[in-house]
Specification:
- Keywords: DNA-binding, Transcription, Transcription regulation.
- This is MurR/RpiR family transcriptional regulator.
- Pfam families: HTH_6, SIS.
- It is a single chain.
- This protein has 285 residues and is an alpha/beta fold.
- It has 2 domains: 71 residues, Winged helix-like DNA-binding domain superfamily/Winged helix DNA-binding domain (Arc Repressor Mutant, subunit A), CATH 1.10.10.10; 179 residues, Glucose-6-phosphate isomerase like protein, domain 1 (Rossmann fold, 3-Layer(aba) Sandwich).
- Helix content is 59%, strand content 8%.
- It contains 14 helices and 5 strands.
Length: 285
């Protein structure tokens, strides 16, 4: 059971002081995993012993065990890409790896389906209400962001991809307003750029839709709407299959919401792609 679930389960049995400490821990989990208990307690205005008691009331032996559990939950443990790659080589199980990968994808998709049924409609509502939508995802999250942008742009002109080319992200973030929406994808380890965009959107009062891997991720804590996807994989690198599935579902739901207007815009875009030569006619190369 993750930290949020544990706190929810025990919350009513906690003293008022421990309830406040638990709320602070959830809201500041990204800080919790990188500082000492004393530093974290001082920043929260509590005595260190308060957080020790909280950890024990949640079933941990102490603060260190709680912190380690959260680190693993956020995907910030020392199981690096290199360590995972070496494990693949050491195991030498190439014959079964294909099936294991597909099985992992299926499991990720099922979990993603179960976690997002309610939030998907909320995401559609926020995007529909936005004066302009900005989309971003850095490094390994970029394919998810690009997929969202490419498809959304077929039927909505008020969409911008923040790609970080030439470190130009501030060109877009300085334009954020309270009427806009930031659709941001990121999973652990979270990129510095994604957190900068998140802070810029918060400062501007923009709505934030986060596609991320944990309800305790820095993105999830700041977002108005959270769409979760699992990145589990037997490979050395996290899987983005479930993240891409969210993007496809979201775009399909938006087209259905837009109705005939979306169909007309898609038709115009498709016609241009054909007449401009971007698409190769059937039978030609």
């Amino acid at each position: 059971m993750n930290l949020k679930a544990l706190i929810t389960l025990h919350f009513n049995q906690l003293s008022p002081e421990l309830q406040r400490a638990a709320e602070y821990a959830l809201q500041n989990s990204s800080q919790l995993v990188v500082v000492s208990m004393r530093t974290f307690a001082l920043s929260a205005g509590f005595k260190p012993a308060t957080f020790m008691r909280l950890a024990q009331r949640l079933g941990y032996q102490g603060w260190g065990e709680l912190k380690q559990a959260l680190i693993e939950e956020l995907g910030l443990h020392d199981d690096t890409y290199v360590a995972k790659a070496r494990k693949l080589v050491d195991q030498g199980k190439t014959s079964s790896l294909y099936s294991e990968m597909i099985t992992a994808h299926e499991s990720n998709l099922l979990r993603t389906h179960d976690e997002n049924q309610r939030q998907m409609q909320h995401a559609v509502d926020l995007l529909e209400a936005a004066a302009h939508t900005y989309i971003c995802g850095y490094r390994a999250s970029f394919p998810v962001a690009w997929s969202l942008f490419y498809v959304y742009r077929l039927f909505n002109r008020k969409v911008t991809l923040i790609d970080g080319l030439a470190s130009d992200s501030e060109i877009y973030s300085r334009e954020f307003t309270a009427e806009d929406c930031l659709l941001i994808a990121s999973f652990a380890p979270y990129s510095r750029e994604s957190l900068q965009m998140l802070q810029a959107a918060q400062s501007a009062g923009s709505k934030i839709i986060a596609l991320t891997d944990s309800p305790l991720s820095p993105l999830a804590q700041a977002a108005d709407c959270v769409l979760l996807f699992s990145t589990d994989s037997p490979s050395f690198f996290p899987s983005i299959v479930a993240g891409l599935s969210i993007s496809e579902c979201l775009m399909a739901m938006l087209v259905a919401r837009h109705g005939t207007e979306a169909v007309t815009k898609i038709e115009n875009a498709e016609r241009y792609l054909k007449t401009s030569g971007a698409y190769v006619p059937p039978g030609k190369s």
